[in-house]
Specification:
The protein has about 110 residues and is α+β, with helices and mostly antiparallel strands. The protein is built from 4 helices and 4 strands, in the order αααββββα. A 4-stranded antiparallel β-sheet has the order 1-2-3-4.
Length: about 110
Amino acid sequence: MRFMIPALMAAAALITPVPSSAAPKGCPPGLAKKSPSCVPPGQAKKGNYKNTAPYRRGDVISGDYIVIRNPDRYGLDRSGTYYNSDGYVFRVDQETREVLDFIGAAAALLN
């Protein structure tokens, strides 16, 4: 009986669903929350990154964009609204199109 309890707990842990985050694939959750997203602090401080995204947090997407349908398919939160604009993925407010978060390059995320 002593051995069944740990085995049952291990089995329960294996079948418990784990919620996915809105972080891009390959990006640790801590770096995903930083600004710029997914850039280590040392590189961000030196400016050794390419963040040529056309929009920043708080901007309103006004140009061409593609709505990403079924975002959970790409590891994104299914309740969020995501746009692909100029090769970058943004989480946006559905009503105002205001950028809430910069997710990353579409090529890395949507493949």
